[in-house]
Write a structure and sequence with these properties.
157 residues
C-alpha cells in the first residue's frame, strides 16, 4: 500500500512547486503596498513570504540533490527539512488567517488575494505533510533493512 503512495512523490513535488510559485506571487502582491509606503509589513505576512522562498529551496534540495549529487544527500535530511517546513506552513497559515483573513471582501482585490494566500498556504501545508509522511515511512523502512554496499535510489529521486 505505502509503495503505491510513495510512487506519487515526484508528482506531489511538482504540484507543490507550482503551488509555491503561486503563493509567492500572491504574497508578493500582499506585501507590495508596504514597499511603496516605506513601512514594514506585519510579521505574519513577512513570515509567509519567507515560507515561500524556504519551500522553493527545500523543493530544490528534495528534487535535485538525490538525483544529481547523491554524495551530498543524507537519508535523514528530507525528514528534518520537511518536518520544519510543515511547521512553518501551519504556523504561517494560521497566523495569516487569524490576523488578516476576512469572510467577505466586497470586491476588494487585496482582501481576495489575502484569502487566496491563506488557502494556498493550507494546501501547501497538506502537501508537505504528505511528503513528511512518505519520507518518515521511507526512513523507518530503511532502518529495518540491513545495510548494503550498493546505494538504492531514494523515494523522492
Amino acid at each position: 500500500m505505502m509503495e503505491r503512495v510513495a510512487g506519487y512523490v515526484p508528482i506531489v513535488l511538482i504540484v507543490t512547486a507550482v503551488f509555491t510559485v503561486i503563493e509567492l506571487g500572491l504574497m508578493a502582491y500582499v506585501v507590495s503596498p508596504y514597499s511603496q509606503s516605506r513601512s514594514e509589513p506585519p510579521s505574519a505576512k513577512s513570515f509567509m513570504m519567507f515560507n515561500t522562498v524556504w519551500s522553493l529551496l527545500v523543493l530544490g534540495y528534495l528534487a535535485l540533490i538525490p538525483r544529481y549529487f547523491p554524495r551530498f544527500f543524507h537519508r535523514l535530511a528530507p525528514l528534518i527539512i520537511t518536518a520544519i517546513t510543515v511547521i512553518f506552513w501551519f504556523a504561517g497559515s494560521i497566523a495569516l488567517a487569524a490576523n488578516f483573513s476576512y469572510p467577505y471582501c466586497g470586491g476588494n482585490t487585496y482582501c481576495g488575494t489575502l484569502n487566496a494566500a491563506v488557502a494556498f498556504g493550507f494546501f501547501l501545508w497538506a502537501l508537505f505533510t504528505y511528503l513528511l509522511a512518505v519520507y518518515a515511512w521511507e526512513f523507518l523502512r530503511s532502518r529495518e533493512r540491513p545495510t548494503t554496499t550498493t546505494a538504492k535510489p531514494y523515494v523522492g529521486a
